[in-house]
Amino acid sequence: MRFIVMHKVGPRSDTDDIDQRVIVEMGAFVQESLKNGMMLNGAGLLPRVPRTRIVSRGGACEVQHGASGTNNLLAGFALLKVANRAEAIEWTKRFAAFHEGELELGLVTEPWDLGFGEKPANAPEQYLALMMANADSESGAPPSEQDLKAMGAFIGEMVQAGVLQSTEGILPSRFGTRLRFKAGKRVLAVDGPFAESKELIAGFCVISVPSKEAALAWADRYGSILTDLEVDVLALHDEAAFDGTKKTP
User: Fold this and answer.
1) What whole-number distance in Å separates Cα of residue 21 and Cα of residue 179?
2) Which SS3 state, helix, strand or coil, does residue 109 take?
């Protein structure tokens, strides 16, 4: 079974730094999870870089720079590798044709942001395009055959362009569990469905485990490292829509 374990935090200030203890402990946990095959993918979002919110209504898109909406309940994501934010916005606006509601772009944390080596010259930027839940995604209603065909063609175009690194659709929140941590200890667990969350999505891991109970146990270790925050454990479809992180022989 595949799950996304996603952590969320309150608003960050320009003076927030990335905790070195978290970097060390999370790095060790991630390496362990990669070695044992539990972790498949993941990314964190830079805390000091403003987000871009894209609101899609009736075929029109409104781009809101530096804004984060009140809906941070995730329905899917796409990891994009592009030259700059403007390019990421254009691709995400095209994603909006398949997703009525709110989408958000956040810049991904790279190794050099954490002090591991220097940033390469002319390095591309990676963004997470976060698709927030709406009534359709929460109902679990499948897309039409026409929409599936159009989305497949769009994904193919992004892959061909070298932009799309991975993308996932998330099952309705009624299949998930929300955890809250205080001082590294889990203090609350609530099963879905969830109301919209106002906490900022700060990062995620995609894991493969035998059961939801195993996913929650993994999330307990994840949350204990990150200390005071909210963690959503949400079920994914059996197969990724596209996972460019997998290497083929």
Assistant:
1) 22
2) coil
**Tens-place pLDDT, residues 155-207:** 999 999 999 999 999 999 999 999 999 999 999 999 999 877 778 899 999 99
Which residues have CB under 8 Å from 180's CB, separation 6+? 186, 187, 188, 189, 229, 230, 231
DSSP letters along 4-33, please? Answer: EEEEEE-PPPTT----HHHHHHHHHHHHHH
Please report the sign of the dihedral spanned by the C-alpha atoms of residue 83, residue 85, residue 86, residue 91.
positive
Tokens 């063609």 belong to residue: 153
- Strand locations in 183-245 (E): 185-191, 200-208, 229-235, 242-243
Both tokens of 115, joined, read 């002090």
Q: Are 124 and 82 in contact (CB under 8 A)?
A: yes
For residue 226, pLDDT beyond 50:
yes
